[in-house]
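Hey, I'm writing a tutorial for new members on how sequence and structure tokens pair up, and I'd like a real worked example in the thread rather than a made-up one. If someone can provide the structure for the chain below, I'll link this post from the tutorial.
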Amino acid sequence: MNPPAANQPATTRLRLRVTNTAESIVRSGHPWLFADSIHESNRAGQTGELAVIYDRKDKFLAVGLYDVDSPIRVRILHVGKPQTIDAAWWQARLEQTLARRQNLFDAQTTGYRLIHGESDGWPGLVLDRYDTTLVLKVYTAAWLPRLGEMVALFQKKNSSERIVLRLSRNIQAFAEKQFQLRDGQVLFGGSPEGAVIFSENGVRFEADVLRGQKTGFFLDQRENRREVETLAQGRRVLNAFSFSGGFSVYAARGGASSVTDLDISAHALESAKRNFALNQNYPGVAACRHETVQADTFEWLPASAENFDLIVLDPPSLAKRATEREGAIHAYERLNLLGIARLARDGILVAGSCSAHVSAVEFFDAVRRAAVKSGRKFSELKTLQHPPDHPATFKEGEYLKVIYLKFTT
């Protein structure tokens, strides 16, 4: 059987053989092949080319995108029987990916994820929609040589006014030098005048698609924001690590009596104010008292004497690498213990984590330990993880987890 086409003569196609352990891992469907798992190659590889992996019997195993400068040397695209990786193959993959989002959202939601990296078969690539703006986030330089082809395909299959490129920090210098590509560059259409406005369950938000965190907003918390809305009636709400106030606007629409946004970034808090202003058409938002506090949450919580009826603790990742895992688990426990101390009777704690290096079990247990240490009676309402437009099909892709606890004393 012939291996996939690699846009070059078969005699020069990059061929790899890997360790027995790596072969089993790839065969199981894991999307990453690390550099130290490769024990033989027919030549030096180039970033962006297709690398064909053979098993110990010299039969085709998989094909993926090669990245010479990354410890993840190959991002797997396909495992199993050989296929030709050409324009038709890419189009079919995109159609399959978009089909998984069909009927997930109505006209009230114009902000969602179209492509979720490895878990959708596009390793190291994310595509988000914000109304008529598409934001393409690239995490590996392996995509850069074929970016033009991908953008043309995305334009063809998604009606949009523009496509904005966002680049992971570790590849920005390479992208600028080798491809004249910059983070925040508009690849198609005109540059937006200010923030892009989109809707989520009828709530309007701004997204800084050119310079904001990730692709401009945290779309993965949509279901949890909706859940907080159902719990907020008549409650005094604290949204710690509030960013641009997503949880807060939902809480206000749900009837919260007051909402306090707490964040260390003045820029984020100004965005939160604008998002409240965007939703004054909702009576709950118009009637809700909205305050902002610029401070470090870990410092502000123990110093405050104010109590709240609902507290959202959704910090940035506390473990950006595996070596930080143990420290992060202890930090989550400490943070939630601080939050519980500020909860009034019958108060609800909404605790979230986006640290992939901390498992759901480890995180939920850390929050439960904090609840036990508080000495208060509590009940667990629910736990939530990935929304359907952010699937997680492998262990390292499982990053999002949120737990809801109610304290009756």
